[in-house]
Amino acid sequence: MVIAVISPAEPARAELARALDRETTDSFDWDAAWEQAEERAREEQRLLEKARQVNEGELEFLGSEPDPDGARMHKRLRLDRESLETGWAEMHQCHDNLDPAPAVQIVFNPERTRNIRITSREGVGMAKVDGPSVQMREIERGARLCVNARVLAIEPHPTAAGYQVENGPFMRRFLDGYYPMHVRLALDWPAGLLAFADSTPPAQPGLSIETRPDGLRLDAHFEGRLVSRLHLLPGPALNGGEE
Fold first, then answer.
1. Per CATH, the architecture of 61-239 is what?
2. Between the CA of residue 15 and those of 23, 123, 185, what are the distances in Å?
3. Label partner for 57 (CA 20 to 30 A): which of 80, 144, 193, 223?
4. What tens digit of pLDDT does each residue of 40-53 get?
5. Is the alpha carbon torsion for 15, 21, 26, 27 positive or negative?
6. Domain limits, the chain
7. Are the C-beta atoms of 126 and 101 separated by less than 8 Å?
């Protein structure tokens, strides 16, 4: 709830000031008092407008360039023939430019994540693995934390030939709002093992996908909750039986 102070019109303001002034001392600065009240009203209006602009979780891609000092995440998955059989792959993930806060947690899906290890941290007073999460304390502005883990990364596609790699939901959430985030996802595989077919959501302003014989790169700048689903097909190395 926002309580806004509404300023009276100038004539009413002057009349009210004169009436009140007759009952108080002449030394009181009514102009300064009203200016303070009006400034509070303007600040309440700014807060109200900001509250209206906070994203409530709906995905919105941002066509503008990401803020170089803004929050971003890099995630790399290494797929091989064993991954195609078991679904599991090695993951390396870094969170850069974390928001300053007394406490932050990064939560992973417990059914799809194993053996989480913190590999490095900067500007984080304390960090520890707690089950499927990483708990951090005393986070400074611009802090960085990197982890390795074993993740269930690739599965048979549910409705088409080939495979699906699902990642997310990615989000940057604070209190009841979602704020801009920059995510870079890299998939690596032996050249020719897999080939990119399509993605959900598709490439668009704010979401780019670059493909090559030995992997792909996804770059997303967005607000809200992003779930990426990449459709991959067997490549010539699988079809031809070559590594």
1. Sandwich (2.60)
2. 13, 57, 64
3. 144
4. 666 666 544 544 45
5. negative
6. 10-53, 61-239
7. no
